[in-house]
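Exercise 7b. Backbone tokens:
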């Protein structure tokens, strides 16, 4: 069946949903269709918490019902081809959709490494499909020895969450020397490792999984360091890659990060086609190099840009690069990072000054629930402009990284940060006399 619509959005994840709602706001007279390939998608960041923290794992469902209330047509079907010359999308169900504007928000696919035995039962890549994820949760809860491959955000959060389940031994294997190595300097990675070990997780670093052994079901894992682990379930927490199959077949240009190449307004190389979220190519805020950041927060920011500017440039994009603002939570510890770490800044050749301070995230520090805090800010030595920041603390300062993220995007200096006017409260922040961002900025200023 042939259907005509003004805007077609392919993808029902956060990027697709936000693109649709933003487009409706700016173009109320346009017909909008959002196409999703699975009936029940999920909130990506909530996937690890389906194992224990969420009493009902199904609560992690990402609903598109609010879109339908806004007059957006939501269809469950899979786009199998895009024909830019005729502005047609062909679907698996045999339908065709004609469009004026098309947005690709197809996301990413889990990386499945070429490990021998990866096809055995009990090995679980992480697909963003609630039906599949609910089955994974049920199966893993019945296991005794779970192996998590990957020590980045996803792997660390899976290990921490599953370790809270009674009767399950969790082992995490990371090939790099430190956990969370792409987002934190070593002193913060060590804190994450300590929290996992305190939870009962066995952490093995500097090792790769080389083979999964067993008959039909996985029973053992052989590592590059010679160890052979007894396991009955394996979770792949090693990240994802952009889903670009549809874009490549349509002749869209692909960037160096292996994502769809886009400009500042998320426009692809083909007129009237946009790409947002994990499937699009990102450029680093400071170096403009291709970067593989895949975050729902980044995806939704891009979606707002695309949705607002489908027909005309209505919202001028001021920040034209990705800074990567992360947070994770491990056994009571909040770890956050924004922009460049000291290690990544030095690797890129920046001459830097580092400001550091340790303290307590409430005041006085004897208040219930108070936690030690540590903050590290990285500045350009000559200009004093902030390049990045890292935080470890308790829940009360979990949002502090967003302040650092704004400071980076606005290119604030150490002087500006140490003279900020900020709200404080005993239960919510450090003391106004010991505010960590201010003190870390002062520490850096004193070294310039």
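Sequence design result:
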């Amino acid at each position: 069946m042939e259907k005509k619509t003004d805007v077609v959005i392919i993808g029902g994840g956060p990027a697709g949903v936000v693109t649709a709602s933003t487009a409706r706001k700016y173009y109320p007279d346009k017909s909008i269709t959002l196409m999703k390939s699975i009936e029940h998608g999920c909130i990506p960041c909530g996937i690890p918490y389906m194992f224990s923290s969420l009493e009902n794992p199904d609560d992690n469902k990402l609903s598109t019902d609010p879109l339908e209330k806004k007059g957006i047509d939501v269809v469950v079907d899979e786009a199998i081809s895009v024909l830019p010359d005729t502005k047609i999308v062909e679907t698996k169900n045999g339908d065709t959709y004609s469009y004026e504007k098309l947005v690709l928000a197809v996301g990413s696919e889990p990386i499945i490494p070429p490990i021998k035995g990866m096809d055995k039962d009990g090995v679980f890549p992480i697909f963003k499909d609630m039906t599949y994820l609910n089955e994974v949760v049920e199966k893993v809860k019945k296991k005794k020895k779970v192996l998590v491959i990957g020590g980045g955000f996803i792997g660390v959060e899976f290990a921490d969450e599953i370790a809270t389940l009674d009767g399950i031994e969790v082992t995490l294997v990371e090939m790099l020397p430190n956990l969370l190595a792409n987002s934190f300097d070593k002193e913060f990675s060590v804190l994450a490792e300590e929290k996992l070990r305190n939870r009962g997780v066995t952490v093995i670093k500097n090792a790769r999984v080389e083979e999964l052994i067993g008959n039909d079901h996985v029973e053992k894992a052989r590592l590059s360091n010679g160890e052979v682990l007894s396991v009955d379930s394996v979770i792949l927490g090693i990240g994802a890659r952009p889903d670009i199959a549809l874009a490549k077949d349509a002749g869209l240009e692909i960037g160096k990060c292996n994502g769809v190449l886009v400009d500042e307004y998320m426009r692809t190389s083909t007129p009237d086609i946009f790409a947002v979220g994990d499937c699009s190519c990102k450029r680093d805020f400071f170096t403009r190099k291709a970067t593989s950041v895949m975050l729902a927060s980044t995806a939704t920011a891009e979606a707002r840009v695309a949705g607002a500017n489908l027909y005309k440039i209505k919202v001028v994009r001021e920040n034209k690069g990705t800074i990567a603002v992360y947070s994770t939570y491990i056994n009571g510890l909040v770890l956050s990072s924004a922009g460049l770490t000291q290690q990544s800044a030095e690797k890129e050749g920046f001459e830097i000054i580092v400001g550091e301070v340790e303290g307590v995230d409430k005041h006085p520090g004897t208040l219930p629930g108070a936690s030690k805090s540590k903050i590290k800010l990285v500045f350009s030595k000559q200009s004093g402009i902030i390049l990045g920041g890292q935080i470890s603390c308790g829940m009360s300062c979990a949002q502090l990284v967003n302040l650092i993220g704004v400071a980076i995007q606005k290119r604030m200096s150490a002087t500006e940060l140490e003279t900020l006017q900020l709200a404080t409260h005993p239960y919510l922040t450090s003391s106004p006399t010991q505010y960590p961002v201010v003190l870390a900025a002062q520490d850096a200023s004193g070294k310039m």
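Instructor comment: The CA atoms of residues 43 and 60 lie 6 Å apart. The domain at 2-37+77-109+242-308 is CATH 3.50.50.60 (FAD/NAD(P)-binding domain).
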